[in-house]
Amino acid sequence: MEIQLIDIPKIQNAKGNIGVIELDVVPFDIKRVYYLYDVPSSASRGGHAHKNLQQLLVPLSGSFDVVLKDGTEEVTITLNKPDKGLLINNNIWRELENFSSGAVCMVIASRVYDEADYIREYADFLDYVRTNKK
Ligand code: T46
Fold first, then answer.
1. Which CATH number applies to 4-131?
2. 132 pLDDT above the threshold of 90
3. For labelling alongside 45, which of 17, 35, 98, 115 has CA 20 to 30 A away?
């Protein structure tokens, strides 16, 4: 599985850093931004895939793990740098876990919220990716 980490340009000086996400940093048209915060360390978020949605996850603060599954392979990526975002394409199962205290996950999305785009059962996801590979 190809892991796509995106470098987020930063402006650094003695007063701290500015991360700048201009439209050309993100490989899709941005339709929505949301963020996960105050996530208990014991919580697991995600646990689904999307039929069409692409997303860029940016760890604005703290750290968390992202488990990605494409139906064949599984990869775990720790996000802990605010200047490194993880691109997740459609048809990828994701689980987010091990949130540190104070972690904030900003998500930049290619579509508005649409529950019909979610595949929330893993067996349905496996069926979906196998059907769509043919
Ligand atoms: C994803 C991971 C990283 C909305 O009404 N609008 C929204 O934009 C979002 C994101 C969620 N919701 C509702 C849908 C559910 O009733 O909020 C509730 C919790 O959503 P969900 O269980 O999907 O949350 P997560 O954190 O498991 O997943 C979210 C995104 O839904 C998902 O696309 O990739 O963050």
1. 2.60.120.10
2. no
3. 17
Q: What is d(CA 41, CA 69) in angstroms, rounded to the nearest whole number?
A: 22
Q: What mean pLDDT do residues 49-62 have?
A: 98
Q: Which helix (H) or strand (E) holds 124?
A: helix 122-133
**pLDDT tens-digit series, residues 21-45:** 999 999 999 999 999 999 999 999 9
Q: Which atom of ligand 1 is nearest to the CA of 88?
A: 34
Of 20, 103, 21, whose CA–CA distance to 61 is shortest?
A: 103
- Residue 134 confidence (pLDDT) above 60: no
The b/e string for 41-68 (b: 16+ C-beta within 10 A; e otherwise) is eeeeebebbbeebbbbbbbeebbbebbb
Determine if ligand 1 sits within 6 Å of the CB of residue 89.
Answer: no
Q: Which residues are marked as active site?
A: 48
The confidence band for 133, taking pLDDT boundaries of 50, 70 and 90, is: confident
**Residue 74 CA to its chain's centroid (Å):** 15
